[in-house]
Amino acid sequence: MSDHAVTINVNGVERSNLVPARLTLADFLRERLDLTATHLACEHGVCGACTVLIDGETARACLLLTVQADGREVTTLEGLTEGDELGPIEQAFWAKHGMQCGFCTPGFVLTIAELLDDNPNPSREEIIEGLGGNLCRCTGYVKIVEAVEEAVTLRGGGA
Amino acid sequence: MSLFGASIRRKEDPRLLRGDGRYLSDIKLHGMVHAVFVRSPHAHAHVRGIDSSAAVADPRVVCVLTADDFPPGLPPLPCIDAEETTKPFNQPILASDKVRFVGEPVALVIVEGDRYIAEDIAGLVDVDYEPLPAVSTAEAALAPDAPLVHFESNVVDVLEYSVGDASSALAAAPHTLSERFITQRYAGTPLETRGVIVEWDEARHGITMWSSTQVPHSLKATLVGYLGLPENAVRVIAPDVGGAFGVKLQPYPEEVILGLAAERVGRPIKWVEDRYEHFLASTHGREQYHDVEVGYDDDGRILAIHDHAVTNTGAYLQRLTLVEPFIGVSMLSGPYVIEHQQLVSTVVMTNTTPLNPFRGVGHVQAAFTMERIIDLIAAAVGIDPGEVRKRNMFSADVFPLHRGIGNVLAGEIIYDSGDYQECLSRALATAEWDEFRREQESARADGRYLGIGIGFFVEETGLGPYESGRVRVEPSGQVIVFTGACSSGQGHDTVLAQITADELGVGFDDVVVVHGDTDLVASGVGTYASRSAPIGGTAVRNAAGSIKEQAIQIAAEMLEASPQDLELADGEVRVKGSPASSVSLAQVAGRVAPGQPLPLGVDSYTLDATDIYHPPTNTFSYGCHVATVEVDIDTGVVTLLRHVVVNDSGTLINPLLVDGQVQGGVALGIGGALLEEIAYGDDGQPLNANFMDYLVPAIGNMPEMVVEHMTVPTPLNADGMKGAGEGGAVGAPAAIANAVADAILPLGAKITETPLGPETVYRALQDAS
Predict the structure, then answer these.
(1) Which of A34, A151, B324, B513 could form a disulfide with B493 if both were Cys (CB 3.0 to 4.6 A apart)?
(2) Do B31-132 and B288-462+616-768 agree at the fold level?
(3) Does domain B31-132 sit in CATH 3.90.1170.50?
(4) Of B19, B656, B699, the CB nearest to A97
(5) pLDDT at A1
(6) Domain containing A65 — which CATH number?
(7) Domain ends where: A80, A105, A122?
(8) Reported CATH class of domain B464-613
(9) Where are the domains of chain B?
């Protein structure tokens, strides 16, 4: 099995690696770069726990091969935080108890980042539509919706 | 404001939100090798031989282990709630001569490299199976000519309980109804699957095992037994656990096998279950039907009940196999006065993944069955369902109420506290029952079918036997808490810090909570049965109370004051009424630091106390759910409109977190009511072992939710805390099923099973027409 050279900008840093063709992006991030906030829960693209941003758009890292991300910009949860300072979405999750076990949370935070970049002041229906592809088994989603609304306020996007 | 009872945000979250969580699969050790289990693809087969030569020939293979590689005579995994009558159909740690469900582990492959390579090589292990006839449902397993999962009979046990004389009372009852109520097989399916890392530690001639488990101390005890090592040679660590819901509450075969392999391999071994494996190899729950006969009078009063429940418990006994069949009948009557009860619970084996308790075990089926019965009676006698419940409910002055029935591992059922009638009234008021009835009527005139349903439950929580709490004040005045109650997302770090800070008068941020490590926490039980707050929380409260007494005694000498005049507040011990006369908790801790004589009457060079709390018995939470739905009668699709919960978990440590527990439980209950079913073919082959075909609720499935609390304290612990983790999952299926039934009642359709997917509802409508 031959390896392929890839160069991927991950959280603002150029990463050059030799990877086998079958290595998923999720495993590349987790195993090669030790960026373990990208979680694997279903490994077939259903649950959204492994959601990352590729060139600013959400993607499922378990369904992508690393070679497909060659030359692209990848953002993981770790890339949203500078030092110890939490971003507004993370602050909102903390304030509203939007998480319990935390396993699905990185995928939600990145999905919400894209949602609010596209639509800084979504309605409740738009929030529910936007988060329809992420599964959480702990919260019942009630406080996740409240967290998104709080994040809108913290980002200054509220009415 | 007191920290106890405050809705403060969690200690755990900033770390997790920065991506600094440390879940099992995030852990890497130097020189780590990777394991994959070879699992049976057959539901039932003889294993004629295992040829691992092709795998072993690969230079990357460390070893391939089968049952023959382990010492003969290793006992199967224990079932700790087995009765004398329970047939000992326990699970071997690795199958040898026979496999009995798809997913049963047969061999372990360990390789250099990574999981990808391990899976490649596992595919080279050639197991010679001779398939046997299989059976996947309880009904089929009870047939006279059914294939036998083990030997003689597929019936593992028949549990029988009774109070009064149900047969005579049924014969004398003015009315009776007979029905079968079916709850399907579903499972907790935490988003994080199970996983294990084990490392042989030559320094202690033993192992350290990291496992995604709810019960590190039980796992340690199990490993000590299987490995034949002294207790000080085994350390178990539960890192951050990504959800559990009961699925991770027992030691599993994989943990034992990996523990046994550790010394031979001599390098850290990692195994992480994938989602498909999880559906096959992690325990399921629920699958149980109830054949009931109920006697009642013209006023809707229940006079007697006979219930025969049958549970499909899968291919092997697990650690707590009898809980599901036991609670399913023993908690059947819930909040209702039923003088005559005859309860029979048959436990049946099939060639399917074993059952073990998960969130709401047994209570879900009991509440679904009983609450459907009440609505059927209400319809038959023409009285409002809320009124029929009120007429049958215990009043608030009956506590403690001895039910005259025992529960497995838990002694007699004694309801301890509450006000069921008030809970029902509040739930009906919040749900705007009467207004909804009017709305329903006008909708029907428009050809729309709305429904409203009640799901009342009483739930055994706070199961013993004990939990540990240890509190230590460091010389800096900072506090560290150790407990056997470990977290799988509930927020133990936060609520136990709240209790400690409240007791010691220190800041929330001055408390660190440590759990999930058997070297750091000497004894403990773990987290299940909604026990961590009432049992673990009480242990921590008691330990902190001992610290408080010690601190006052030491400070009394320092302040030359009488102990009874001192109090702890703001990180100080001070004289009541004259706060200027004070010493800091740090100074108090410093006063007993080693290197100096101790104060008179003090005998320890540390401010450190441990409590092991044994509750006198369990505490019973309860709640009332009211669901409203719309049913599309052309398609059978159910849309949830609103879900109201009035819940009593006693005194609340952190209402924000309890809201989260109830809401999450309701979501799981919605899954059970409408979406989730683990399906098997008649041949025992799993049909939907993935998240594409097994539907857990997504955000779009959720109705508007309203959660309110009653806080009737239990007398069983000083803070009055009852369990809060499971009730949401218990009440929701009953309420939703009743709402669906109510919606289509005018069409004569009958609802007797879950999940209420479109096909089931449509079929009920067709059967009625």
Answers:
(1) B513
(2) no
(3) yes
(4) B656
(5) 66
(6) 3.10.20.30
(7) A80
(8) alpha beta
(9) 31-132, 288-462+616-768, 464-613
What is the DSSP code string of A129-157? HHTTT---SSSTTHHHHHHHHHHHHHTT-
- Do residue A104 and residue A62 come from a single domain? no
Q: Tell whether A129 lies on the interface with B, counting CB pairs under 8 A.
A: yes
Helix (H) or strand (E) holding A4: strand A3-10
CA distances in angstroms from B517 to B208, B212, B220, B256, B522, listed in the order given: 10, 12, 10, 18, 9
Structure tokens at B85: 């009558």
Return residues 47-76 of A near B (CB < 8 Å). 47, 49, 76
Q: Which chain B residues contact residue A39 at CB under 8 A?
A: 23, 191-192, 242
**Beta-carbon contacts below 8 Å between A and B:** 169
Q: Which of chain A's residues have a Cβ under 8 Å away from the Cβ of B188?
A: 137
The torsion of the CA quartet B619, B314, B368, B757, rounded to 10 degrees, works out to: 140
Do the chains contact at A141 and B25, CB–CB below 8 Å?
no
Interatomic CA distance for residues B217 and B275, integer angstroms: 26
Considering the segment(s) B288-462+616-768 as one domain, its CATH architecture is 2-Layer Sandwich (3.30)
Q: Quick one: pLDDT at residue B202?
A: 94
Alpha carbons B415 and B446: distance in angstroms, whole number: 46
| Cross-chain residue pair A135–B21, CB shorter than 8 Å | no
Q: What value does the mean pLDDT take over residues B734-745?
A: 98
Residue A159 pLDDT more than 60?
no
Average pLDDT, chain B: 96
pLDDT on residue B342: 98
- Clarify whether residues A14 and A68 are in a common domain: yes
In a domain, A112, yes or no: yes
Tokens of B743: 């919606």
Interchain CB distance below 8 Å, B18 and A136 = no
Residues in chain A: 159
What domain range is A30 assigned to? 3-80
Segment B264-268 mean pLDDT:
97
ipTM strictly over 0.90?
Answer: yes
Whole-angstrom Cα distance, residue A54 to residue A76? 9
Say yes or no: A71 and A134 in one domain. no
Q: For residue A95, give the nearest of B9, B488, B698 by CB distance.
A: B9
Alpha helices in B282-384 (DSSP H): 323-330, 363-381
Look up residue B484 and give its amino acid.
Answer: G
CB contact, 8 Å: A154 with chain B? no
- Could B23 and A20 be called an inter-chain contact, meaning their C-beta atoms sit closer than 8 Å? no
State phi, psi for B450 to the nearest 5 degrees: -100, 150
Domain closes at, from A37, A58, A80: A80
- HSE-CB at B461 with a 13 A cutoff on CA atoms is 35
Helices (H), B161-271: 166-172, 216-227, 253-265
Decide if A159 is inside a domain.
no
Count of C-beta atoms within a 10 Å radius of residue B207: 23
What pLDDT sits at residue B476? Answer: 92
A143 touches chain B (CB under 8 A): yes
- For residues A94 and A76, membership in a common domain is answered with no
CB A128 within 8 A of CB B699: yes
A94 with A46, same domain: the answer is no
Same domain, A73 and A96: no
* A92 plus A145 within the same structural domain: yes
Whether A128 sits inside 8 A of B700 (CB atoms) is yes
Record: contact A143-B698, CB cut-off 8 A? no
Q: Which residues of A touch B12 (CB under 8 A)?
A: 102
Beta-carbon neighbour count of residue B728 at 10 Å?
Answer: 31
**Would you say B62 and B266 are in contact if contact means Cβ atoms under 8 Å apart?**
no
CA angle B44, B49, B50 (to 5 degrees): 100
Tell whether A103 is within 8 A of chain B (Cβ).
yes
Please report, for residues B63, B92, B116, B548, the alpha-carbon distance to residue B52 in angstroms, rounded to integers and kept in the order given.
10, 20, 18, 62
